[in-house]
Amino acid sequence: MKYRWFSLFLVLALLAVGAMSIQAQDTVTITIRCKASPPEEDWRCNNFAEVVEQVETELGIDIELNLIQDNMDWGEYKNEFVLASEAGEAPDIILSGHEDIGAWASAGFILPLDDLIAQHEEFADVVETLWASQVYQGVTYGVPQDAEARPIFYSKLLLRDLGWSEEEIESLPDRVMNGEFTFADMIATAQEAIDEGVIDEGNGFWHRPTNGPDFLYYYYGMGGQVLDEEGNLVVDRAALVLVYELLGSMTTEGVMRSDMTGIDFNEVWHPTVAQADMILFAAGGTWNWPNWALNYVADQGGDEYLFENVGLTLIPAMETGVPITVTHPLSYMISSSSEHPDVAIALIAAVTTPEANNRHAIDSFHLGILNAQVDSEVYQENRLLSSAHYMLNYATFLPNHPGWNSWSSAYYLGIQAVETGEADAEGAADIAINQMVNELGDGITVR
C-alpha cells in the first residue's frame, strides 16, 4: 500500500512539475538587435513594439520584448553578433545586410527558415525578386526588411546653370533608362560644366568615400562576374581593368577628386552633395534623401528644396550597354542561439505587412518589399518612393558567399590605388587580384 501511495505522490509531483514548466513557457523573452540611423530608420526595431500584443494574442503567450537598437559602426556591429554567436548568447533576431547570410549560415550562426516561412501567409506577398538575396546554397536564411536603390543624384540647379532646359533635366532618368545617356555622356557633361566654370575641378562626379556595395555596379557594368554558375567566387581581370581605367581617368582628368576615398562622409560628403550647388553628379543611396532633408537642408525647405534642385536616376550604361543599380536589402535573420524561433518568425511576419513596412519605407526613403505595399495609397502618394521603385527592375545583389568581404576589400584596394595615383589600371588590377588570391587561395578563380 505504501508503494501505491508513493507512486501516486510521484505522479502528482511530476504533473505539478510539468504544469510549472508549461507555466514557465507562457512568458517568452525575445531579444532583437538592429542597426539604424536615427530618427528616420528607427522603425527597424520599433515596429516590433507595435505588433507584439497582436503576436501575443495569436500565440497565447506573453512576450518580453528586448529591443537593442543603435547606429554602431557596421564592422563593430557584425563582430558583436559573431562573438555573441560563438558564446551561444546571440539575440533571437539580428538585422543585417543580406550579404552576411553566406558567412553566418556556413558558420552555423543563423537558422534555415524555409519551413518557418511557409507557416505565415504574410511572406507570400514579398516582391519575388528580393527572395533571391536571402538564399545561400538553395536555402533561405533571411526575410527582407527593406530594399533600396543606389542611384546617381544629379543637381538640377547646376544643370540649369549649364544651360539645360527643364525638359532635358526632367527627362534625364528616362534617357538613362533607355540607354540614350550613358556613363560616358555623364562624364562629358561633368567635364563641360568644369570647362564652363559652372563647377570647380574635381566636383563633376563624387562616389562614396568608403568601401561599400555601390562599387559593385561599376564592375557589373563592365561585364564582370563575382560568382560562376556553380556559386564559386571568380574575378574577371578584364572587367577590373576597365573599372580602374574609368575611375582613374576621372581623377586624372579632374572630373573627380583624387582623395575621394579619404574624405569624411558626414562632415564633407553629405553636406556638400545635399546643397546641390557644388557637385553635379553623385553616386549615393535612396535613403540619403531623408537624411539630407532632416539634417542638411532643413533650413532651406528640406524635401521641397531637394525636389526643386536634385534628381535621381539609374547608373548610366557602361560597357554592357545596360543601366544598372545595386539593391542591398537588409534582412531579419534568426540566430541559432534562439530558444524560440517559432515566436521570432511570428514577430517577423507581423512586421512584414504593408502598414508596418510603410512606416519604415516612408520615414527612411527605403523601397517597399511587398506587392500590396507598392500599390497602397500612402506609398503611391510619396512621390520619391513611387518614382524610384522602378529601379528594382534594374537591380542586382551582392553575392551571399563567405568570401565576399575578402573579395570586396581587395577590389576596393585597387580603387584606392588607381584614384590616388599609386598605380595605373593594370597595376591596380594586380593589387586587387593578388590580395584576393592571398586571402581566398583556391576559393577564387581568376579569369
Summary tags:
447 residues, alpha/beta, D-Maltodextrin-Binding Protein, domain 2, five-stranded mixed beta sheet, four-stranded mixed beta sheet, 15 strands, 47% helix, disordered N terminus
> Which segments are poorly predicted (pLDDT under 50) over 5 or more consecutive residues?
1-25
Please give the largest β-sheet.
Answer: 5 strands, mixed
CATH superfamily of the largest domain: Periplasmic binding protein-like II
CATH topology call of the largest domain? D-Maltodextrin-Binding Protein, domain 2
Tell me, what is the CATH class of the largest domain? Alpha Beta
Q: How many helices does DSSP assign?
A: 21
What's the domain count? 2
Radius of gyration: 25 Å
Sum up the overall morphology in one term.
globular
Secondary structure: number of strands: 15
Structural class, judged by helices and strands? alpha/beta
- What is the CA-CA span between the terminal residues? 84 Å
SSE map:
Elements: H1 2-24, E1 27-35, H2 43-59, E2 62-70, H3 74-86, E3 93-97, H4 100-106, H5 114-117, E4 135-136, E5 139-140, E6 143-144, E7 152-155, H6 156-161, H7 166-170, H8 172-177, H9 183-195, E8 205-206, H10 216-221, E9 233-235, H11 237-252, H12 265-275, E10 281-283, H13 288-295, H14 303-309, E11 310-313, E12 325-326, E13 330-334, H15 341-351, H16 354-364, H17 371-375, H18 377-380, H19 383-388, E14 395-396, H20 404-419, H21 425-440, E15 444-446
Parallel strand pairs: 1-2, 1-3, 8-10, 9-15, 12-14
Antiparallel strand pairs: 3-13, 4-5, 6-13, 7-10, 7-11
Helix pairs in contact: 2-15, 2-16, 11-20, 11-21, 20-21
